[in-house]
């Protein structure tokens, strides 16, 4: 079945809420369980551990991220509830070959990227983390003489030079046998999501000291709520109830 993860990790606890910012009707939402068997649960699930907050819900990633520099409604809601925090929104679904994440620090979107079946679906922000190592390797591979980017710009007109170089690295390693040793050195690629998987794994590691699936063993608050429209909904009420 492969990995299926869809949720949000925050390196802090929520701020205090005033009564007038909570919807009294939503405060009556039914709590239906205290455990989960998947990190992509059908019902909204929230828990807290070691001063971190975890919010998991199938599909919460989709339609709630973008490659614009402005925050989405979900991201704005999270920044309001968790000011000055690191927030990682992540979705991995090996069944449909989807990998995506959005990383926010102190209210600023750092990186958003999503790859579906080896095709880049969303891509916002400067190259980051492992991608910088891939860029450095590319320049070594090309011996300081990077490829002319004119033709690549026709395919990726809004991409920075650095992103185009990292994409060119993918092509050079995969199609030229004399460069296979570079893949052995750094077995990650920009377009197939493997570099994103590594970045997500490293970011998750900053929240969870052990395997992320150990989170399933925590005590959870599971709500009878499967869909959220963040143009009108907020996570405030559910976080408030889970924290009580």
From TrEMBL:
Lineage: Bacteria, Pseudomonadati, Bacteroidota, Cytophagia, Cytophagales
Protein's name in the database: Uncharacterized protein
Organism of provenance: Roseivirga seohaensis subsp. aquiponti
